[in-house]
Amino acid sequence: MHNALIIAQKELRDTIRDRRTLLVMVIVPVFLMPLLFIAFGNISKSSGSAQYTVSIAGSQNAPTLVAYMRKQPNLKIVLQPNPTAAVRDLSAAVGLEVPSGFEGTVSAGKPGHLRLIDNSTRNASSSGRDTVLAAINAFAKDVVRARMQQHGLCPTLLVPIQSTMVDISSREERGGLVLSFILPLFIVIYAITGGMYTAMDVSAGEKERSTLEA
Fold first, then answer.
1. Which residues pair with 53 in a beta bridge?
2. CA-to-CA distance for 70 and 3, rounded, in angstroms?
3. d(Cα 142, Cα 148) in Å, to the nearest integer?
4. Phi, psi of 170 (to 5 degrees)
């Protein structure tokens, strides 16, 4: 064991002397990993606030709906006769076809039908489809409220139970939860990265320096 400790001390000393190894073992993980997490977070935020182009055909059949969608900050409305072609040639993320009489059907209290066009092989199109659906559902809720008010009913009748979420965790506890997921990952990466260059030096490095016995 004494001889093994001597060899271990010698290898650790050689590792610390190598500036390139120190750079990869210490400086890069300590600074690069947090920067990567910050970059991923910014990318997620930017993707969440992305704007999607929506090609609409038959906008004259649903002026109220189109006006509502124009107010959405993450939707760019373009009026085109062929939404399918617009989605196919990537000029629009999502297409929407409104049939004739849509506005009158909804005003009469009947369900209106829309044709939503997307390309499931494109992330932008799939995300845009979800965004458009969310806007349509929000518009539908407004229509339901207006219908209930016309009949003298309170819109809260559709929401018999309302729940309020109360988070009793402190800021320190929420930070500890995040660290409990991140720190194990860092430890594993640091262990692999740090040990890798030492292992390379005691094998290939020793062989190149002709100090490795057969």
1. 76
2. 76
3. 10
4. -85, 170
